Prior knowledge:
CATH topology of the largest domain: FAD/NAD(P)-binding domain
Number of helices: 12
Radius of gyration: 23 Å
CATH superfamily of the largest domain: FAD/NAD(P)-binding domain
Structural class: alpha/beta
Largest sheet: 5 strands, parallel
Number of strands: 27
CATH class of the largest domain: Alpha Beta
CATH architecture of the largest domain: 3-Layer(bba) Sandwich
Shape: globular
Helix content: 25-40%
Amino acid sequence: MEQQLHRVVIVGGGAGGLELATKLGNSLGKKNLAEIFLVDAKKTHVWKPLLHEIAAGSLNPDKDELEYLAQAHWHHFKFRYGRVEDVDAKNQTITIAPTSDIDGIEIIPQRKIKYDTLVLSVGSTVNDFNIPGAKEHAVALDTQYQAERFHQKLHNSILRAQTQAGSVRPGQLEVVIVGGGATGVELAAELHKATREMAAYGLDRINPDRDISIHLVEASPRLLPALPAKISTSVEMELRKLNVKLFLGEKVTRVTEFGVETHSGKKIISSLVVWAAGIKAPEFLSKIKGIETNAIHQVKVLSTLQTLTDKNIFAFGDCAACPIKPGAEELVPPRAQAAHQQASLLYKTLKNRVLRPNKPLPHYVYKDYGSLVNLGRYSTVGNLMGSLLGGSMFVEGLIARLMYLMLYQMHLSALHGVISVVFRLIGKIISRRTEARVKLH
């Protein structure tokens, strides 16, 4: 009787999950040493740090999204489209919910997939902290769909103001961003640029400096509270130059169709509210029997990235509560560099699991290489960390901008290879001459 191949099922096709599936497919899958499956509720992948550019209209997702089916075909793994609704750890199966089309007609029935090794890489979602009205009246930026939805609302608001009989109403072209972390500040700068470029394409009744306002509300006393104060100060100065209205030390207590209210009694009128404050893991993780999760639904894992109670289930990235080093109480921060590091470790771990099952698993130790915050064409700032630098070094301007751009190219290189990325860059440079600088639909 032919022995069945070891089956690795990866749930979640974000940056880390997709990189892991691609690497395992290129090695184990290509040589028919294991079956590699990737499961995701979407058909395409867009690098999450680009979502604020999609929301502003600075980036056309059609040109930067990757189709999972094509990637799976090129890199020797299998893609299954659908949302995972249950994990049966005892029988080592996952259940994928039925999938319907836009008319509600079922196109793919419920399915079960058996696994030998399960990897949970489902990322995180925005945490609205159960603030009244946040779910109903604010747009999150977790997915490409949400980013495109916000862009449509913004674009329609500007078109309406351009063609309406009266003048612009209070709040009509006001944008409130709740959360002064990296997503919030990058979105504020990108919106400043994109709204002015939209107005330049013949929208002559709109004066961006007079009619369009961007408000950024942060509960902490400074922007980017998780990053060094020098970065916060630099970013705050740049945003103030752009006339972004900052509300620091203000906690949002309510979101309505007319705007937001804060704990100090301030009311900011706006029909466009973006929620970018806090994260949590998807709630379905807390419903999986046999694994432990924390208060924000992250899966508790050992430094091997295995769950505490099941050695066949791994979790990494934003959805995992992982110690920064073996035995530490402090957890790995939810950052892209951590997911990339963990994906690289898991690649080695899972190869050994298949080829050398008796070899001890490596342990993950978080390495902080610093942070970069991109304010579009206005500025890029950050800090670099490492043993060669002897601590932390502040960077800004062109050097920081180039380093930020390199992060995305490194992600693409992991998915497509260096040569493909070079040709892609050349194609973008050539096509830029015939494209609008901002998405106008």
